[in-house]
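Quick one:
INPUT:
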């Protein structure tokens, strides 16, 4: 397996797991969502896929917002 394939596989696996946990209304969803952005950013930069910059940037913002919002709701 090439390093590129492993990065792509990790992006897929972490994104799928994060989506699963979002569906369970678990805070692990946004945590995994944030973690998944690392391989997605690597794919974007290494592949020179700059058209993904808006979605990658917004996903970081949205996952961070969701994590902040859910923490606020559970901790008052």
């Amino acid at each position: 397996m090439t390093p590129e394939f492993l990065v792509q596989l990790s992006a897929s696996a972490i994104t799928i797991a994060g989506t699963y946990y979002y569906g369970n209304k678990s805070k692990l969803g946004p945590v995994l969502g944030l973690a998944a952005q690392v391989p997605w950013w690597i794919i974007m930069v290494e592949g020179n896929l700059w058209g993904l910059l808006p979605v990658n940037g917004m996903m970081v913002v949205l996952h961070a917002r969701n994590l902040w919002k859910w923490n606020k709701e559970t901790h008052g």
